[in-house]
Amino acid sequence: MFEKPIVMLDFETTGLSPQTGARITEVAALRIVGGRVAERYVSLVNCHVRVPYYITELTGISQAMVDAAPAASAVVPQLLRFIGNDALAAHNASFDAKFLQAESMRLGLAPAYERLICSLKLSRRVFPGLGSYKLGALARNLGIRFTGAAHRAEADAEVSAALLLHIAQDLGRRYGVSAIAPHLLESVTRLSAAKVADFLDKTMLNAKKALPA
Q: Would you say residue 150 has pLDDT above 80?
């Protein structure tokens, strides 16, 4: 479980970077409260751009689907209000964060999330030695089941949320704590792999000491 809410974010996009003109086509944001997904915001997005054929092949999101979707000028403000100032998480978080920032800036807006947590970096540090840290491979290795189509925002966000909870449960079992603070997860992602074990040993010991007797 988590001490504070965390919003798991996933975008589908027309390319790899907003700096090269790529735009969002779909978004899913799932608010994790305690140990479960309590709220969600999911929408296709019309940015009035062409969806490349290979993106349709990968995601199943067609030009017609995007053309019929709400405009980014409506979706992005709703998304920012949904996220609020909770901690934000994503698998390969820098990718989703740069699209969130770029789409917000286009409208003269700015995200207000408190901190950014990358479940990919976390997985590398908490579960070292795995062959792959791509979302699908991690899900298979850890027994997390996809409930929808991969490379669709809601399905990927669901699995990423399950992965984040799996990490929290694993840390809780290892160190005997019942709730994990989002700032601890963010701190772990900023450490080199060699420093993680000592950091967790010290931090979790202090967390246990702070628990009521």
A: no
